Structure formats: C-alpha cells, structure tokens
Amino acid sequence: DDFNPSWSPDGGKIAFTSDRENGNFDIYVMNADGSGQTRLTDDPADDFNPSWSPDGGKIAFSSFRDSTEESDNQEIYVMNADGSGQTRLTDDPDLDRFASWSPDGEMIAFSSDRENGIDEIYVMNADDGSDVTRLTDNNANDLAPSWSPDGEMIAFSSDRDENATHEIYVMDATDGSGQTRLTDNDADDFNPSWSPDGEMIAFTSDRDSTEESGPNFDIYV
Prior knowledge:
221 residues; mainly beta; four-stranded antiparallel beta sheet; globular
C-alpha cells in the first residue's frame, strides 16, 4: 500500500506512506516521475501523513512509535527532507495527527483528541512544538486541517452538524473564529486541500455511493 502523497514545494519530489518493506508503514520520498524511491523512516511502529515545510527543508509526519501495550499514542514528528534529525514535536498520551504547515513555516496545525477524547484542531510552533493552542471546541470530531496559501484560514472536516456526517469547514487561522460550513450533504466530505491561489478547495466525498455499489469515494472541488 502506497498512499498519503505530498508534493514538495518545488514540485520535484513526492513524499508518501508505504508498508512495502517490513509490514509496517514508513515515510518514503521519490522524484515526481516515480524514480529514486527512498525510505526516510525506519521504525517498527507506523509512520503516516507526511507534510512538507514551505521551504522544502523538512517533513512533518505522525507516528505510533511512542505507543505502549496499554494505549495507542500517535505523535507529530518532524525530520529533515533526507530523513535525518527526526524529532518529536508533541508529547501527549493521545492521538496527534494530520500535520499541516502554515505558509510561512512558523506554525503547524494538527488534530488531537487530547482533551476530551474527541478530535479538535490545534496549532503549535513548528520549531519545537511549543505554544499549543486549541482552535475548535465542540462535541464532535474536527480533523485534517489544511492551511490556506495566504495563511489566513484553515479548512478542516467536522461531523458536528445534525446529520452526523463529515462536512468541510473553514475558520480563521489565528483564533478559530468564523467557523463556517462549506459543504452540506448527507455523506462524508473530508481531507480538504487548497488550490495554490486560494480560490478553490479539493476534497474527498462518498456522496455518490449507492446501496448497490457500496462506498464510492470521489474527488470534488
């Protein structure tokens, strides 16, 4: 399984997740034409969701390497683009995942269920994981933050509304204000991704599924 592709800012490389070598998931990188596939992490635990820094020098990712037999513990790590210098940014006994860099490279947004067992969106300093600030606060799961190219907004998915399916929302990246629902469909919409000019958002949805076909995920804008 190869998934979670993430383009480098210069368009020359793609980082991704794969379980090709030892049955657990690690982070790999390859040239944009698929050549030069290279393993960056080598840990007996699973590593997921690579996300490039805006300058292309670092890759953030989530990892289960700090889990124990008693509980799963997913943390956000960062490493140099060649896999060196792997450093843990979050330190909490719950699930921290879906890292997304701010356009200026100063902050990382992520999802965590650290406070009430429900995923919320947080931001932290990208260099050392300090100044963790919670942006969403509701009795629902808020996941997969994606920073707008101008740094002013964060898109995310949430199942907070009456139909209990995930919809795409946006909010102010500074303080979480102005949370606004963009999609309204009796299906799951998730994994938002901004266009480079900030005018459009791509996302995944199963809204065209039928009872006969079963789950059918497509890409929308």
